């Protein structure tokens, strides 16, 4: 067993490393291939605690969470340094064109309301998502409860959850930075310049770019995990990996319009193999992309 060295996104740099201080399950408890279920002590552990990857860090939101704290502390520091430059009347609301349409007195609450509410909201969202992700780890079937019916399915779900949490963390960090940058530069200039609303457009578009970039690593993560366990990939796992190759949505002709994203079935996603699923998924993407581009191009639109 070796210690993991992570890259900038928090992934191991080596293909065979396992999480520090975590022992791999006994070979006798591992299935013949990924289409089978673990047995013995490993199965009991999975029933109690759910599946956690051995070859990724297990802290998918730690780096963006810490950076969000840094953004908030930096915002507070700049407010203290530039307090005398901030005019007696501060912006309480900014229109889509970046100009202020509502003013208020210079108080700590009015000055810091947007940055701290934004950053605090992002931190709260990260904490809730981390707690949910830890609670709803993929599990094998227990009694009558619904569960993953193969090791490969649990590994795929765990890798997908890691990607979703990591993508969410970085996306929320970008939103936190954008919200702070809407206000902080204007403290120094006395609100002479319009608010850079286009930064919110960047944050909206990042919500799609980041999951796309990270989502391509799910197959790599699954292969690395099964390789570390010494378990070959089974045909059912191959089929599942192909169906879930887009991470956020499923492409499975044999399933209905709505498909659970994991086990237990707490969240559902749309099946783009169905015509209605294509309309819902690509319609949502089109609307959000249009919103992001509108905000991004707002300086040109409003002149």
Q: What does this entry look like structurally?
A:
The radius of gyration is 23 Å and the shape is elongated. The chain has helices at residues 40-49, 62-81, 108-135, 151-189, 198-215, 218-229, 235-243, 275-296, 298-301; strands at 89-94, 100-105, 258-260, 268-270. The strands form 2 sheets. Strands 1-2 form a two-stranded antiparallel ribbon. A two-stranded antiparallel ribbon has the order 3-4. The chain has 9 helices and 4 strands, in the order H-H-E-E-H-H-H-H-H-E-E-H-H. The termini are far apart. The protein is mainly alpha-helical and 303 residues long. A hairpin with a 7-residue loop joins strand 3 and strand 4 (268-270). The model is unreliable at 1-18 (pLDDT under 50).
Overview features:
single chain; 303 residues; mainly alpha; two-stranded antiparallel ribbon; elongated; disordered N terminus
Radius of gyration: 23 Å
CA(first)-CA(last) distance = 59 Å
Average pLDDT works out at 83
How many domains in all?
1
Oligomer status: single chain
* pLDDT < 50 stretches: 1-18
Question: Helical region count?
Answer: 9
Q: In one word, what is the shape?
A: elongated
Helix percent reads 40-55%
Strand order of the biggest β-sheet? 1-2
Keywords: Membrane, Transmembrane, Transmembrane helix
Organism: Kocuria coralli
Protein name: DUF1648 domain-containing protein
Pfam families: DUF1648
């Amino acid at each position: 067993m070796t210690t993991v060295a992570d890259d900038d996104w928090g992934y191991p740099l080596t293909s065979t490393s396992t999480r520090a201080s975590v022992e791999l399950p006994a070979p006798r408890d591992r299935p013949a291939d990924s289409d089978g279920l673990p047995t013995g002590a490993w199965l009991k552990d999975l029933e109690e605690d759910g599946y956690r990857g051995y070859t990724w860090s297990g802290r998918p939101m730690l780096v963006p969470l810490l950076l969000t704290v840094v953004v908030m502390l930096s915002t507070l520091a700049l407010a203290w340094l530039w307090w005398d430059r901030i005019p007696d009347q501060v912006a309480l609301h900014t229109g889509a064109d970046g100009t202020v349409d509502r003013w208020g007195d210079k108080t700590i609450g009015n000055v810091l309301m947007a940055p701290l509410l934004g950053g605090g909201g992002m931190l709260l969202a990260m904490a809730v998502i981390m707690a949910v992700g830890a609670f709803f780890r993929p599990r094998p079937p227990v009694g009558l409860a619904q569960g993953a019916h193969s090791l490969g399915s649990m590994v795929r779900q765990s890798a997908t959850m890691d990607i979703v949490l990591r993508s969410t963390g970085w996306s929320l960090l970008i939103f936190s930075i954008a919200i702070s940058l809407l206000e902080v530069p204007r403290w120094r200039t006395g609100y002479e310049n319009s608010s850079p609303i286009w930064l919110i457009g960047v944050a909206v578009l990042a919500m799609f770019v980041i999951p796309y970039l990270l989502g391509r690593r799910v197959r790599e993560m699954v292969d690395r995990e099964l390789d570390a366990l010494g378990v070959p990939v089974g045909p059912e796992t191959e089929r599942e990996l192909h169906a879930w190759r887009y991470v956020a949505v499923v492409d499975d002709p044999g399933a209905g319009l709505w498909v659970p994203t994991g086990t237990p079935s707490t969240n559902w996603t749309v099946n783009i193999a169905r015509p209605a699923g294509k309309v819902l998924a690509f319609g949502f993407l089109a609307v959000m992309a249009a919103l992001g581009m509108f905000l991004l191009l707002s300086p040109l639109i409003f002149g």
